[in-house]
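re: that chain from earlier
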Amino acid sequence: MPSPVPVTRLLPGDIYPCVDTGTCSSPLTQPSGSTLQVPAPRLNGRVGSRLWSSVILWKQLRSVQPVGSGGFGSVYRAEYLGETVALKKVKKSTKNKLASRQSFWAELNAAHLRHRNIVRVIAATTCVPEGFGDEGSIGTILMEFVGSRNLQQVIYGSPEVLGADRWLRYSADIVTGLSFLHSHSVVHLDIKPANVLLSTEDVCKIADFGCSLKLDPGCERSAVSPQLSHVCGTYTHRAPELLRGGPVSPKADIFSFGITLWQLITGEPPYTGDRQHVLYAVVAHNLRPSVQDHPVFGSERGGLCRAVLSRCWSAEARCRPSCRELLPLLRELGSPT
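^ sequence. v structure.
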């Protein structure tokens, strides 16, 4: 079955078709019926190539060890061409096969991008040799290994809330990464603490692009895919226009960042109670995490935080700041005491 995601949503126009290529194992096809191709690996003995590859050199994988698993599949730590990498197997969903296939291809929306605040994709394939995969996997993605910590663990793994110096630095990292994505027409659509990894240098890197969307050039928003509108993303962080089935825009990521920023500041979960009640209240009654019951919001910096949060999680997407507008606001938060 052909992939439901157009080629242009995965690769920039200067990448396909290509001479001197390795065959891509995706089901995407060109109009002529030939297999989509992307540049062969530019490894030069290392995994630091500029572009992702459609070829995984399976015999070069060593010491494959499980790191974690979830609804998306499983992640492993491995050695590849002399460097530590993360190997992600995307699980096939028995309930919604189309959505799981879309999720795999969405993981590659940012594969051609390189930024210090985005997890780098090294290679991806749907062809797995015998002994390396399983029948329940749609495909495998090879990425840089950032580390074993994410912001979810950092926020809730300590009895004390983060100091302002740390949450300001982490939030600036996230917005800087989002700004780069948005400048390349990629919307993440699942920004939350669990999807932000921390490197050994304590740098935040945005991960997990399975819900992402590549907007058409020149378009500021796009309609939500009917197959993914209700199954993709995390309801506690999802913008109200998406909960209503409205159009996707980069401002949806700003809303999700606002919820994440509140978590960084307070160290608490954004909502309690029944999922359906929260969904309804966010859309119908502008329910947002509380800024009234936390001492941190009573200071001068706290007042500025309330103003930033209010703008980020505005019910109207057009009223939310862009990433470029948000970065100076975050810098201002670093000034007051």
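The longest strand covers residues 61-70.
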